[in-house]
Write a structure and sequence with these properties.
The protein is an alpha+beta fold. The protein is built from 5 helices and 4 strands.
């Protein structure tokens, strides 16, 4: 029996449940869990869950992004970041805002495998490196 990856399980689960609700949803989830148990892959459930969230967000056009700032963000800037992310990714951003005073200013945006570091600390560090070369 060929082993399935957490991503394959997550894709299969999404396909099985994305258009059902109620008892049918419960039945399909129970069947899925029975299959995972039968295949002796219960140890993969945490990874399957995280991959399922990725699949769900991709299919629904949701982009989870972490935005790190030196100080709290005002509404206008938050909307500007959301609009830019929506245009850049063609997905609806869901922002997780964090504060890190060590950035000094600017912003760091993380989503998927992408990191956009427009922080003052990073810019000063890059300037320092270029002057020392």
């Amino acid at each position: 029996m060929r082993k399935l990856t957490p991503k394959q399980y997550a894709e299969s689960l999404y396909q099985a449940i994305h258009e059902v609700s109620g008892r049918e949803l419960t039945k399909r989830i129970n069947n899925f869990l029975a299959l995972v148990k039968q295949r002796k892959d219960l140890k993969k459930l945490d990874k399957i869950y995280h991959k399922f969230i990725e699949v769900y967000q991709r299919e629904k056009g949701i982009l989870e992004a972490e935005v790190v700032l030196a100080r709290p963000l005002d509404t206008a800037v938050k909307q500007e970041i959301e609009a830019w992310l929506k245009k850049f990714t063609q997905r609806q951003p869901k922002l997780n805002l964090l504060t890190d005073k060590s950035l000094l200013g600017g912003v760091v945006v993380k989503f998927g495998q992408t990191i956009i570091d427009a922080s003052l600390a990073n810019n000063l560090n890059n300037l320092k490196k270029s002057l020392l070369m």
